[in-house]
Amino acid sequence: MSAAPEALTAQLDLWRARMEAALSRRLPPAERLPERLHAAMRYSVLGGGKRVRPILLLATARSLGLAEDEVEAAACALELVHVYSLVHDDLPAMDDDDLRRGRPTCHKAYDEATALLVGDALQSLAFELLARDPQLPDSPAVRVRLVGLLAEAIGSVGMAGGQAIDLESEGRRLDIEQVERMHSLKTGALIRASVMMGAACVPDLDARLERALAGFAAPIGLAFQIQDDLLDELGDTATLGKTAQSDRERGKSTHPAILGIPASQERVRRLSAQALESLAPFGAKADPLRAVADWLLARRN
Asked: What's the total number of domains in the chain?
């Protein structure tokens, strides 16, 4: 049973406020040298956003009985890495976008060289948090596991690899299996890491529950990307906070482009059902994750 819409909205607002404060504390002050780089980092990270990946980690932690303080730094690391990917993706050499989260992209607000450095510095800060933040579990094994999960999720067999495939495939017609493989890397890998990093903070977690979380994370990551592609096709720029219909203009292979909108919506429903079914071993304890999954796939931006 998922949370009532009002209760979920209130919880999401609380989590976003928590993350905004947590990220602000961990980012370098704008007045510290080099000021322009630090100001651009804060501009990019604190510029709004749904905070999907931190929220998934916080919901996983709650489902596992962990205190939010225990995973807050890991949630920050996830968001820093996600923002770094957005800053780099928006560059002219990649997707060449002018708008992100309803305002100019980093390279438009500052410049391309600064945007490159912002991405580099955010990625570095993410791993520094996993290594040194005092709020994370003291266990070296837990910290090494967190570092490994995040590194794998964003490397050549994760997010960076998926982005490479995406760039190579522009203007080419991929089949649906190829598209899903690309999305499982580009977007799904970091979504999976958001859940599994929560699991990693419980060193003695029952193997059956860890498998259940993995079984939830993979389909929800793919469903999230398909929903994103649907919103790009059906939404408007003002609502999305980024340029609408950009995938079609670039000739990208997406679920809506290949399967059509109704079949893509049905694929989202089936993946959602698969993800929720995987949580059965948790019983009601996984209701926070179920509620977040419902929100992710019902969103409009």
From this structure: 1
pLDDT digits (tens, 9 = 90+) for 216-225: 999 999 999 9
pLDDT tens column, 26-65: 999 999 999 999 999 999 999 788 999 999 999 999 999 9
Two tokens, residue 150: 């995040």
Beta bridge mates, 182: none
Whether the bond into 262 is cis, omega within 30 of 0: no
- The contacts of residue 43 (CB under 8 Å, 6+ apart) are 106, 109, 110
Confidence band of 242 (pLDDT split at 50, 70, 90): low
Give residue 38's identity as a one-letter amino acid code: H
Write down how long the chain is: 301
Q: Give the residue numbers spanning the domain of 110.
A: 5-298
- Residue 193 sits at the vertex; the CA angle it makes with 138 and 161, to the nearest 5 degrees, is 130
Whether the model pTM is above 0.90: yes
Cα–Cα distance, 146 to 197 (Å, whole number): 6
Looking up residue 64, the CATH number of its domain turns out to be 1.10.600.10
In angstroms, the CA 135 to CA 178 distance is 40
Tell me, letter by letter, the H, E, C secondary structure of the chain: CCCCHHHHHHHHHHHHHHHHHHHHHHCCCCCCCCHHHHHHHHHHHCCCCCCHHHHHHHHHHHHCCCCHHHHHHHHHHHHHHHHHHHHHHCCCCCCCCCEECCEECHHHHCCHHHHHHHHHHHHHHHHHHHHHCCCCCCCHHHHHHHHHHHHHHHCCCCHHHHHHHHHHHCCCCCCHHHHHHHHHHHCHHHHHHHHHHHHHCCCCCCHHHHHHHHHHHHHHHHHHHHHHHHHHHHCCHHHHCCCCCHHHHCCCCCHHHHHCHHHHHHHHHHHHHHHHHHCHHHHHHHHHHHHHHHHHHHCCC
